[in-house]
Amino acid sequence: xxxxxxxxxxxxVGKIQELKSLGSxxxxxxxxxxxxxxxxxxxxKNHNWGAAQKMMKEPKKFIDEIVAFDGDNIPxxxxxxxxxxxxxxxxNFEVMKGKSVAAAYLCSWIVNIVTYNTIFKKVxxxxxxxxxxxxxxxxxxxxxxVVIEKVRVINE
Length: 156
Known about the structure:
The protein is mainly alpha-helical. The protein has helices spanning 2-9, 13-21, 27-41, 49-55, 59-67, 76-87, 93-97, 101-155. The radius of gyration is 23 Å and the shape is elongated. The protein has one domain (2-122): Histone Acetyltransferase, Chain A, CATH 1.20.920.
């Protein structure tokens, strides 16, 4: 999650403004913006540059939405739709920074938020089970304390 946050922190209004103002951006920069549309808004089809520009219409608001994105609860259909992009050899920060700095940071955000989500889905059930076990242990410890106190009183 920290890596995703770092990628977002590198975005600024100027970079987003520059990306959205491109009349004919590199194809891979368009693909990254389409991935943002998929993960953020669930837009699964009719991807076109005009729609991506509209998504970034207000750069500050767009960045705020990316920052506030709930990486814990990404719908499975969105993750599935992203798989072909994530598997592409060009879908990484290093390649994308040669195309567009903003697209590179958005690409990094997507990769890291999906990685975070994958880990979260594996760890959350374990954490929930640990929390439940701790709650049970706390309850039993309190019950034991009461019994020990009763035994102490009886012994006195």
